[in-house]
Amino acid sequence: MEKKPVKLPLQIVFCADRAVRKDFPTLAQAFNMLDENFHLHIVGNWGEELNTLKNDNYTFHGTLNPLQLRQLYKKCNIFVSCSTQDTFAWDGFPTTAAAEAIATGCILVSTNSRNDERILEAGEDYFKIDEANPDMLVQTLNMIRNEFPLIQEKGYKTAIKTKNLLDAQGNVRKKLNIIF
Q: Where are the alpha helices (DSSP H) in the chain?
């Protein structure tokens, strides 16, 4: 994790493989309502959906390898997940992509459709939005912009918390202490 520049436009990243449950339409509706203070980075196989974006302040990256993703996450401020609940979703919360972005200090804005708070707590570690609610997403992003330096610090704290919770060496040591 490195400190991120505190400047506009805020860099938003949406990273997911194309699936209905990822709810790109909600992202597109919300992004079309945002002003020039936001730039969206789209990662994944979303080329067919780009025509729904009327706001042209975005970059389509297509599919990136893990090292390219890490470099992009380091430049971004906010990771957005609009996922909806369905029976085909195997990923937990946060998703692997979101966790990797959080590790770089990205602020998480997510639906958390499974209401899983084993690792991250809504309001404390991330901003929870309702499913299929572009207005709430816009409101949340504008609030982040208005209070950005303070909220970016919250993103750094979440990165440290996540790193400590998922630290394999530390967790093994704790378990061994419990066993012995």
A: 24-33, 66-75, 96-103, 134-146, 148-165, 168-179
> Please, are residues 113 and 92 in contact by the beta-carbon 8 Å criterion?
no
CA nearest neighbour of 141 among 82, 87, 90 = 82
Bond from prior residue into 134 cis (ω within 30 degrees of 0): no
Please compute the mean of the pLDDT values over residues 39-50 and round it to a whole number: 98
Residues 75, 2: Cα–Cα separation, whole Å: 10
Whether residue 88 has pLDDT greater than 70: no
Alpha-carbon distance values, 172 to 9, 114, 167, 180 (Å)? 41, 27, 9, 12
Instruction: Identify the band that residue 11 occupies on the pLDDT scale cut at 50, 70 and 90.
Output: very high
Q: Is 38 helix (H, G, I), strand (E, B) or coil?
A: strand
Q: How far apart are CA 139 and CA 124, in angstroms?
A: 18
pTM: 0.92
